[in-house]
Every structure is written in structure tokens, then in C-alpha cells.
Write a structure and sequence with these properties.
The protein contains eight helices and ten strands. It is an alpha+beta fold. A five-stranded antiparallel β-sheet has the order 1-2-3-5-4. A three-stranded antiparallel β-sheet has the order 6-8-9, covered by helices on one side. A two-stranded antiparallel ribbon has the order 7-10. This is Phosphotransferase.
């Protein structure tokens, strides 16, 4: 008898694995609809949809293994990281998806709220939050919208050898800043940034990309704490940023 493996679960959604099928349970059907639509549009490998019966979406397992895990050294090759960068570039060159995503003004307001919460609730040292808040503002400049995955973290990219076999979790896909995806991919894995950029194949604004490391980390710590997850990798990124500038 095949066992049920809980991949992730919180009050918004859950992902289970049974054999070679992943079952995503999401009570927000608009979000689930957006994920299915984004996978259909994306010009990169995505999981095969086995069946869908709301609130459950059944996806075939991808070949290979995750590119890495947040806060854990990656065993993937430099070539695999470069392949992930190339996949990101292919996605960013595709026609825009319908969702407009965040704009700089909305992100700035959200960042202000999150930083205020972190300080008011003593979730992080005030100096750490304030300095990274200043760094993060460099990301909030006008950008040319591209097709972004929206949560391109290492655990969502699967590789086999030096090949990307698929990218998971498209519920946040939208128009956005290309550097947001590249920052998410290299968050807590900054040592692989050069590999990713080699595969991406074009010059990027490194200051803006590093600013996204601060912005993404500051915005997600509150959510992670509230859903019972350990924000240690994001906190480590925020601490490392102090030595980068």
C-alpha cells in the first residue's frame, strides 16, 4: 500500500504525495485556476495534470530532484544551476500572462507594513530590519514587465543531471520584474548566482537583484512565522546583506 506523504500543509492549502502523484488541495479556486492557466502558457517544463476535481489538483511527479532546499547546501552541479537560469530567461521572454502582479508602489506599501510588524512584535532586531528595509528600496524602481513565476525558489525547480525536468507551483505567476525570479532562485544560495546568470545569458542589475533578496526575505518572515515554518534561511540572508553593503 502506498503511503501518503505530506509535502506542505497550512490553513490556506496543502500538498500531498501518493506514489507518483502530487495532490494539491486549495480552497481558493481563483488561485488554482490561475496556476493551471499559467502552466498552460509557460514555455518551460511543468508537471502533467492528471486530473482536476476542485478543490484538488492532481499533478504527475517530475523526474529528478529539487535543485536545492532553502538553507541547505545544494548538491546540484553548476551546469544544473545554469540550466535553471536558462529556463528563467526562456520564461521571461514569453508573452505576458494576464495577471498584472504587483507594482513598485504596492510593494513599497506592503514592505513598510511588514517591516513595522517585524519591529513592533520583536520578530527580528530593529536594526536588522531597518538596514534591510533601506537596501530593499533599490528593487522598487520601474521595470519592464515579463512573465514571472512569482515563487521561483530552489525547491520548485527539478533537475536530473544537468537538465531542468520541470518547475512546480505556478499559483503566483504574473507580470513582474525578471530580477524578482532570479533573486528567489538564488535566495540563501548566493554562491550559485554566477552560475544562474551564466545560464540566463544577459547582464542584470546586481544591486537591484540583491535588493530583492532583502525585500523578499522581509516580506515572507511574518508569513512563515504565522504558518509554523522556520524563517532561519531568510533571516540568514538578511544578516548576510549587512556585510554586502
Amino acid at each position: 500500500m502506498e503511503e501518503v506523504e505530506i509535502i506542505v500543509a497550512h490553513h490556506e492549502r496543502a500538498t500531498l504525495r501518493v506514489g507518483d502523484v502530487f495532490l494539491k488541495v486549495d480552497t481558493d479556486q481563483a488561485r488554482a485556476d490561475a496556476e493551471v492557466a499559467a502552466m498552460a502558457l509557460a514555455p518551460v517544463p511543468t508537471p502533467e495534470i492528471r486530473w482536476r476535481k476542485p478543490p484538488v489538483l492532481a499533478l504527475a511527479a517530475l523526474r529528478g530532484r529539487e535543485l536545492g532546499r532553502p538553507g541547505t547546501p545544494s548538491a546540484a552541479s553548476s551546469e544544473a544551476w545554469a540550466a535553471a537560469g536558462a529556463a528563467a530567461r526562456k520564461l521571461h521572454e514569453a508573452p505576458l500572462p494576464p495577471s498584472p502582479g504587483w507594482n513598485p508602489d504596492e510593494l513599497a506599501a506592503d514592505l513598510d507594513r511588514e517591516c513595522a510588524w517585524l519591529i513592533a512584535n520583536d520578530a527580528l532586531p530593529a536594526g536588522l530590519v531597518t538596514r534591510n528595509h533601506q537596501i530593499a528600496k533599490a528593487a522598487l524602481r520601474p521595470w519592464t514587465p515579463v512573465f514571472t513565476h512569482g515563487d521561483l525558489q530552489v525547491a520548485h525547480v527539478f533537475v536530473e543531471g544537468d537538465e531542468v525536468t520541470g518547475i512546480l507551483d505556478w499559483s503566483e505567476a504574473a507580470q513582474g520584474d525578471a530580477l524578482f525570479d532570479l533573486a528567489a532562485l538564488t535566495l540563501a544560495h548566493q554562491e550559485h548566482l554566477s552560475d544562474v546568470l551564466a545560464g540566463y545569458g544577459t547582464d542584470v542589475d546586481l544591486d537591484a537583484l540583491r535588493a530583492w533578496w532583502s525585500l523578499r526575505s522581509l516580506r515572507v518572515v511574518h508569513w512563515l512565522i504565522g504558518h509554523g515554518f522556520d524563517p532561519a534561511p531568510e533571516v540568514a540572508v538578511l544578516e548576510a546583506q549587512l556585510f554586502q553593503y
